[in-house]
Amino acid sequence: MHSLAKPGLLRPALLALGGSLAIAASAQIQVPIQPVPMTLQSLLVLLVGVAYGPRLGAATLLLYLGEGVCGLPVFAGFRAGPAALAGPTGGFLLGFVPAAALAGWLAARGWAQGVWRGAALFLMGHAVILAAGCAWLAGLVGVERAIALGLLPFLPGSVVKVALGVTLLAALRGSRRG
């Protein structure tokens, strides 16, 4: 019997699907501010990058974006379709791909070890997402409004998500030892 699937692709495909579903679930945990809701997505995006590495992490986020563009209600507020990428949230969503890749790249180089390096990893990942989101939003509403609407409200939440990310990494390291 000849299989069309290449050996060794099932596991990464299942990981990518599971990661995309976890990110979709985290998109629904939100503080509904306008024009961009605050969600737990960025934390999951960076954790997927750390856990999966740069290539599979980025591929997982491309899968997630593809699911949403194709009409699956995976974006915040169960939104779907290409309009979600064209609107105010588009830059944040697109920024997930390089952020996951960066987190995976840094983790592969030991940045997920220890509190300070882990915090730096999560801060850099959030910086990528916020920069992409604000740049996109600036094209829609101008630079000053983009900073007011797409950066400043997200800074306290990003700090909390950095702390959660570092705590989760420490807990995972501890559970592997025991």
TrEMBL record:
Top-level taxonomic group: Bacteria
Alphabetical UniProt keywords: Cell membrane, Membrane, Transmembrane, Transmembrane helix, Transport
Localisation: Cell membrane
The keyword Metal-binding is annotated on this UniProt entry: no
Membrane topology: Multi-pass membrane protein
Transmembrane segments: 37-54, 90-108, 120-141, 147-172
Main location: membrane
InterPro entries, per database record: BioY (IPR003784)
Family: Belongs to the BioY family.
PANTHER family cross-referenced by the UniProt entry: BIOTIN TRANSPORTER BIOY (PTHR34295)
UniProt protein name: Biotin transporter
